[in-house]
Amino acid sequence: MKENINALDEINKGSCMGMDAIKDILDKVEDEKFRKLLDSQYEFYNKIKDEIENIYKKYNSDDDPHETSIMNKVMTWSGVNMKTLTDHSNSKIAELLLQGTNMGIIEGRKILNRKEMDSEVEKIVSEYVTAQEKYVEDLKKFL
Questions:
Q1: 140: exposed, middle or buried (Cβ count in 10 Å: 0-12, 13-18, 19+)
Q2: Using CA atoms, how far apart are residues 64 and 66, in angstroms rounded to an integer?
Q3: Model's pTM, two decimal places?
């Protein structure tokens, strides 16, 4: 039971971080194809959050899924703004997003490798990791 909660919390936090990063950076993206990719990623993260919220009470009736803390949100926002202050090219933005996406893949793969979760939780984690791996390939095109 605890592994299910931990997996859902980690994937939910990763989705929140992805959504926060995209919100913070989207106004700097001028390329329409790049914006569409980021919109698609944002929608996916939101969908994963919804899926997690729908099953979370089954595993933890006392709490809601963990999200990123206010401190992490501030750090993400300031980091994105500082790193794109002088260079907000597609390449720089893709680089920053790739770094975060790779962290999501690593965390997701660690969770999957433990294999100590219910099938519905494993499905969500697997869907998240597979999408993240696809996004890496998509983002590389903008480097």
A1: exposed
A2: 6
A3: 0.86
Are the beta carbons of 132 and 105 closer than 8 angstroms? Answer: yes
Side chain identity at residue 39, one-letter code: D
Is the distance from CB of 141 to CB of 55 less than 8 angstroms?
no
Top-level CATH class of 2-140?
mainly alpha
- On whether the CB atoms of residues 56 and 64 are closer than 8 A, the answer is yes
- CA–CA gap between residue 47 and residue 32 (Å, rounded): 22
SS3 state at 105: helix
Give per-residue pLDDT as tens, 41-79: 999 999 999 999 999 989 887 777 877 666 665 566 566
> Which amino acid makes up residue 115?
K
Tens of pLDDT, residues 111-120: 999 878 999 9
Sorted by where each begins, the domain ranges of the chain are 2-140
**139 vs 137: CA distance, rounded Å:** 6
Among candidate residues 138, 120, 98, the one with its CA nearest the CA of residue 11: 120
